[in-house]
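Researcher: Can you fold this with hexanoyl-coenzyme A in place?
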Amino acid sequence: MNYTQKMLQKDALKNKTVVVTGGGSGLGKAMSQYFLELGAKVVITSRNEDKIQKAAQELTQLTSGEVLAVPCDVRHYDQVEAVVQSANKHFGSVDVLVNNAAGNFISPTERLSANAFDTIIDIVLKGTKNCTLAFGKHWIAEKQTEKVVLNIVTTYAWTGSAYVVPSATAKAGVLAMTRSLAVEWAKYGMRFNAIAPGPFPTKGAWDRLLPGNLKEQFDLAKKVPLKRVGAHQELANLAAYLVSDFSAYINGEVITIDGGEWLKGAGQFNLLEDIPEELWDMLEAMIRAKKDR
Ligand code: HXC
Ligand code: NAP
């Protein structure tokens, strides 16, 4: 099967500028690479400046495309507004916003401090709100149309999931925002869609969701009816289609790309109930030790 091949025609995103939050690693980087290969100019943002500068260099070398790295913590509206300014200054205008940045880790909810819960809500829900509001207001004020916002959610945004409750809560909010603004801001020439990925191995997610031997114990591929995890290119193919003009009549949709996983067993991390109480201290230490910034 050739699902790891590139799907869209060359130049499908020519003349488009795309901002990808969290574009320096994992799925954000994979999407950014494909957007560049399709002729887009890309702005990648995240908190870690070294990481995004390095990623930008790598992406330029791989694709010969134009990439701008702008450090930004999406939790802070002033920093997001600065991204709007620098992206517009550098590339003239922005056509697409991909809200991909996220924070997450597994934990029994009763172990979370109020700040731990807030941290995930702030990155995922408030961060997506900040970026959407800043770019949306700019496009409306400038009377710019044919704009696209693509939000990356998860399948537990609608099913909920134990042990990742702040993430599930925040992603549900992002899904509601996607569908609400798809209706309200269509009059300004904006489309809003979302992708709900199943398991796609990335360092960021796997370090925090499957630390230690949980990878073997809870082999996520086995939970997928198609018996495999996702390939980054197949997610990038879907994202490229949804931000391209080929999907011009798709608005307010969330497309699941999970091999049928959620239908088979809703709530991806409910199965962590099998972890004995005394193991959580060790798992928490392992997750904290992996922090890479
Ligand atoms: C309990 C924890 C914890 C843990 C942190 N905290 N890790 N509590 N268990 N394992 C607490 C801290 O003690 C603190 O609360 C609060 O959370 C904030 O922690 P900080 O380290 O100060 O936050 P920050 O530096 O902002 O880092 C954010 C982070 C970190 C979310 C904690 O993991 C991160 O930077 N993540 C970004 C990348 C990421 O998460 N990628 C995965 C996306 S995968 P106190 O009270 O002590 O101040 C995904 C979908 C997956 O989203 C679906 C898969 C199938
Ligand atoms: P990842 O590599 O950890 O991506 C998360 C990105 O968000 C990182 O680049 C991180 O960079 C950035 N980020 C975190 N906090 C930020 C903040 N406050 N401000 C700006 N940027 C911030 O993990 P991933 O797996 O690729 O996840 C990408 C997206 O896919 C997320 O929305 C995630 O929820 C979703 N998803 C992933 C899977 C999966 O199986 N991988 C499944 C379902 C959904 P910095 O640390 O440099 O800030």
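Model: Folded with hexanoyl-coenzyme A in place. The chain is about 45% helix and 15% strand.
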